[in-house]
Each structure stands twice: as C-alpha cells, then as structure tokens.
Structure prediction request, 117 residues.
Amino acid sequence: MKDSELRTRTKALALRIIAVCDEVDTRKGRGVLVNQIVRSATSIGANIHEANYAASKADFINKFHIALKECGETEYWIEMLVGSNAISEQIAKDLLQECGVIRRMIVKSITTAKENN
Prediction:
C-alpha cells in the first residue's frame, strides 16, 4: 500500500525524533522527557494508521482527534527538551515546524471527514 503524504510525514517525524533522542544525555531527569516525546511522536502516526481500520466515520474522526492531541503533546515535549538544554533551538525549530505542518494536515483531514459525514 502506498503511504499518503500524512502517513509518510508522521513516520518521518517519529524517526527523526527517535534519532534526536538517541543523542540526548538522559542524565539529570532527561530520560523521562525522552520517553515521553518518543511515545507521543510515534503515537501520531499510529493513530492515523489505525484510523484506516476504523469501524465507523465517528471512529475515524476520533482517531484523527487523538493524533492531533498527540501532535500537540509532542510540541510540548520539544519545548521541554529545549528548556532543559537537551536539544538546540535550531533542532527544535525544525521539529516544531514539521509538527505544525502535520497538525494542519490532521485538522484538514478532520474537517473533510466531518463535511463528508
């Protein structure tokens, strides 16, 4: 199955975040931040993937809402990593920019699904 742009982007974001986190010094409590961001970042794509197997339109929309929340949570953890000096502001800027693109795509997908309901 050919991945949609959204699925491709969410997968790429998750893999980028995993790679960035592999470089983070997990001492000083940063391990908790790393675990949280990896969980939220990978959950974005997982929920979008799961939406393809939704039992109903409402279930489909719900999965996208969960993905949207996980995207927002990922943005929060990026800010926490910057605040704790675990990653540079430039890395964070790039990751936050991609989160923004993905967030807008998810919102558009939710809007379209609701219009077609």
